[in-house]
Amino acid sequence: MIFGYARVSTIEQNLDRQIDALKAEGAEEIIEEKMTGTKADRPQLNLLLDKLRAGDIILISDLTRLSRSTKDLFALVDKIEKKGANIRSLKESWLDTTTPQGKLMFTFMAGISQFERDLISQRTKEGLAAARARGRSGGRREKLDSAKKKAIYDLYTQKQTKLMDICNMFDITKPTLYKVVEEISKLKSGNIEKE
Q: Residues in the active site (predicted)?
């Protein structure tokens, strides 16, 4: 069975162009969805995946109709292949797991994607190691308690201490300093209004 999957992001958009292209390529049943591709949980796509049997093909007009992210695409293709089914894109000829060449290209693209993720992970680890060697620790800074926030606010409003000195004292960035000042200012103005 050849299933067509047509998707648009909003209810107002029209599926006709996709449906015509899928029918012209032999889609026997077309599953239509009007929902953003950024959501992993798409009811009609899930229904289609449940229907799949060995030997079935999912036909899409182009890759963006199925997935907006590489990670999501690879997960979907993996689910499809585990059912013994295949996928084919009309626009991206390399996405065609019905042929040996298509499977090779998809495997190649998956390998590049994995390689990219591994490089990012390696660079992150190297960056954290370099920071630790310089006495800095990676990760999120600890949250500021109310006493520290009040001290930051007091130093800032007294205007006798440079901003960078306050930041260094409390190991915070300038944006964090401004957020603290804004937060305390709102609290103080709220208390004045109540009185």
A: 9 (o-(5'-phospho-dna)-serine intermediate)
Give the per-residue pLDDT at 84.
93
Q: Which string of b and e fits 65-97 if b means at least 16 CB within 10 Å? A: bbbbebeebbebbeebeeeebbbbbbebeebbb
Over the stretch 136-165, which tens digit does the pLDDT of each residue have? 766 556 678 888 899 899 989 888 888 888
Residue of 9, 89, 93, 189 marked active site? 9
Q: How far apart are CA 34 and CA 44, in angstroms?
A: 9
Amino acid 193: pLDDT? 47
Residue 26 predicted with pLDDT over 90:
yes
Residue owning tokens 């015509």: 20
